[in-house]
Amino acid sequence: MSGGMRRPAPAESERLLHVRDVAKHYGAIRAVDGVSFALAPGEIVGVIGPNGSGKTTLFNAILGQIRPTSGSVEFRGEDITARSPLELARRGIGRTFQTLQVFGQLSVRDNLIAAAQEFQGTITGRLFARPDAGLGARADEMIELFRLGHVAHLKAGTLSYGQQKLIDIAMAFMPSPRLVLLDEPCAGVNPGLVDQLRELLATLNRTQGGSFVVIEHNMDFIMKLCPHVICMVEGRVLAEGAPADVQADPAVLEAYLGN
What we know:
The chain has about 260 residues and is α/β, with parallel strands linked by helices. Helix content is about 35%, strand content about 25%. It has a six-stranded mixed beta sheet, with helices on both faces.
């Protein structure tokens, strides 16, 4: 494996997420081919690579959308390989998708409440809970943090794509997850919003100890946000390390940056 200075892997007792030799094969196609990495609480790891390099397939294998062909995934020391997405969400793992997951007919505030309501108490308790399910204060906290106060009462479907993207990401953080995997959070948004997203994630990391794995094609975003970067090519880890080291790696330049 190429790459510059690699940060020491977190000790076993310090690992929030541990991906061990995860592979996903479709016949002769090795979409993911033996990927390993570990993440400690409070860390941010960026995943880069050209289209078709296996990044989203890796996310789906980690998050239970697909069953890995081989390998394992551990979260807080527990084997969660092939657990359902709902089980993982209840254990404190959130995610965003490349496509928006907002409810267009609900207000911004109600979208946030809906995102966390599923994890709030029992079915009977939710049935007789007050209208905001006891989540109003948390929703208001997210609305303020994501600067959505001026549109909080509006239907999400009436807002711009960039604003809906903010709602989508805020929804992932509503249940106070221990770990969030974000799949191309900058896709389709304007440069000004890209900067805002980076500041928001940095704030969540700094103030709430948020741990993230971020897939992104926007290299500036990744290099400024993520202290540790993994570059995937053809289902494998080509290089990993500090952002500047990965960005300067000749193999990465050839495979990803086109230099």
